Amino acid sequence: MPLHSEKRLNKLKAQLIEIAGNENVDDTTSGRLVYSYDATPNFQALPEIVVAPRTAEEVAAILKLCGETSTPVYTRGSGTNLCADTCPLKGGIVLLMKHLNKILELDRENLTITVQPGTITKEISDLVEKDDLFYPPDPSSMKISTIGGNLAENSGGLRGLKYGVTKDYVMALQVALPNGELIRTGGKLTKDVAGYDLTHLFVGSEGTLGVITEATLKLIPKPESQKTILALYQDIEAAGRSVSAIIAHKMIPVTLEFLDQDTIKAVEDFAHIGLPTNVKAILLIVQDGPKEIVDRDIHKIAEICRGEQAVDVRLASSAEEAEELATARRSALSALARLKPTTILEDATVPRSEIAAMVRAIAEVAQKYQVRISTFGHAGDGNLHPTCLTDARDEDEMNRVEEAFAEIFEKAIELGGTLTGEHGVGVTKAPYLEWKLGKAGMEVMRGIKQAIDPNGIMNPGKVFADKAKQRMVTVK
C-alpha cells in the first residue's frame, strides 16, 4: 500500500533526483522488486522508490527530506541479513549504499582502516593482510556482505571466540541522523571517555537510529602461524562438554565450531572435501599465534577432546586443507538450504558452559514438534544456529516451526543466554525481545529511539514489536 498519493510520490521522486541524480533514483516495478526482500525467508514488500546516494552529504539530505515527508527509510547493503532487517515492510524508500564502497585510508601508524559502508567485508580483510595486518571479524557471508551491514547487525563470525565481534573493532563513525545532520563519533584513540559512547550505540542498532556513512576500524598484527584440527564424536553431548572443557583449561582457540550429523552430511554433499558423515558431531578447532604456543595448545586440545570421548582427532595436513575446512563450515547454510524449499536459521546463544544443555534442548524440541532441525554454529562462544528445514507452503508445519523456535528462545534465556548472538532482532525476533530485556529495558530503548528518530522513519517495523509474545520465562 503506497504511503503517498501519486502526486506526492512524484514530488518526492523529483526531490530525490535533485539530491542524488536521475540515474540513482528508480521507481520502476522491476527496480523496486530487487530490493523488496533479503535473505530472510517469507518476508517481502515493495518499496516506493530505490535511491542510491553518492556521498554522505546526499545521505543526510535524503534523510532530512524523508523526515519532512514522513517517508520510511530502509538502508540496504547486500541484503544478506537473516532477520528481515532490510525488508521495506512499510514501503517508503530503500537507501542503497552501492556507491559508498570505497576504502578511504589504511593508516599503518595507528593500525586503522577507514571505509565507507558499501565496502565488501572480505575486501577489507584481503587488503590489510597484504601488509601483515589483520581484521578479525569474519561473518560467513564475508565474500558478499558489506561492512555497513556488519556494523548495523554487529556481526560475528568463526573467529569470534578469540577475537570478538564487529563492535570490538569499531573506533570511529560518521553517521547521518534522521534530522539531516552528520555527526562524527570516536576517533583513532585507545582511550576516549568524553561523554556517552555514541559509537557503540549505533553499532548493532539495525538501522533504526541513523545511517552509518563512514567507519574507522581497528587492525591488529597478523598471527604468525595457525593449525586446524577436527574432533569426531558419536555423542553430541560429549562434543558440547569438550567445548566447555577446552575453555575451562584456559585455552581460547580462534575457532571452535560445532556441526551435527545432518549438517555434516549436507556440507560434504555440497563441498566434497572428505568430511566423515558417519559421526554424530564434529568440532572444527583452529588456533593461531606464535608457533610454539599453537603447537602446545593444539596438542592439549586434542588430548581434552579424546578425554571427552572423541572417537578421532585429525590435524589438517596443510594450510590449503585448513582453508577448505573453514570454507566448508562457512557453506553450512547454503548446503542445508538445498534440502528443503524453506530454510529458517536462528542463533540462540548461551554461556559456553551450557552448550551441551542447549544442544540437548534443541534436539528435544525438534522431536516434540516433529520438525527437522539441523544444528551448527560457533560453539566456543555459545552461539548455536538451529536451522529448520521446512516448506512455507505447509501452514501446519510452519505453525509448529514457530512454536519450536519460541521454545528454543525460551530455553536459551532460561540458561542465561539470549535470543540472538549475531543475526540481530529485526522482525523475526522482535516479539520475543521483551523476554530478554523486560518491560523497563524496552522502555529505555524506546526512549533512545524517540530522542534520535522522533518521526520514526528509520527502519520502522524492526526491533520494536507491536505486541510481545506472551510466555512465562524463568531466567537464571
UniProtKB/TrEMBL annotation:
- Report whether Oxidoreductase shows up as a keyword of the record: yes
Domain FAD-binding PCMH-type: from-to ranges: 43-222
> Which cofactors, if any, are listed as required?
FAD
Question: Is the Flavoprotein keyword given for this protein?
Answer: yes
Q: Which InterPro entries match?
A: FAD-bd_oxidored_4_C, FAD-bd_PCMH, FAD-bd_PCMH-like_sf, FAD-bd_PCMH_sub2, FAD-linked_Oxase-like_C, FAD-linked_OxidoTrans_Type4, GlcD, Oxid_FAD_bind_N
Q: Which UniProt keywords apply?
A: FAD, Flavoprotein, Oxidoreductase
Q: Which GO terms describe its molecular function?
A: (S)-2-hydroxy-acid oxidase activity; FAD binding
Q: Show the Gene3D superfamilies listed in the entry.
A: 3.30.465.10, 3.30.70.2740, Vanillyl-alcohol Oxidase, Chain A, domain 4 (1.10.45.10)
- Annotated Gene Ontology cellular component terms: glycolate oxidase complex
Q: Which domain of life is it from?
A: Bacteria
Family per similarity comment = Belongs to the FAD-binding oxidoreductase/transferase type 4 family.
Protein name from the UniProt record:
Glycolate oxidase
Q: State the organism of origin.
A: Sporolactobacillus nakayamae
Q: What is the lineage of its organism?
A: Bacteria, Bacillati, Bacillota, Bacilli, Bacillales
